[in-house]
Amino acid sequence: MKDLREYKLINQKFSHPLISSSMIWEQRNSIVLREKLSEKCFGYGEIAPTPSFPNQPLIEVVLKEAEKWKNGEPIDFNSPLRPALSCIKSELWTDFGETSSLSNSSGSLSNFKRGTLASNSVKIKIGILPVLDEIKKVKQRIRILPDECMVRLDANGSFTLGDLNRWIEAFETEPRIQYIEQPLQDHFREKLFEISKVSPVPLAIDETVIALGSPQLAKDNGWLGFYILKPTLLNDWSDTINFAKNNSQAVFSTVFETPFGYEALIRAAISSTLDAGISRKHFAHLSTELSCHHQKKINVPAADQIQLHELWNRI
Question: Residue 81's domain spans which residues?
Answer without folding.
Answer: 5-89
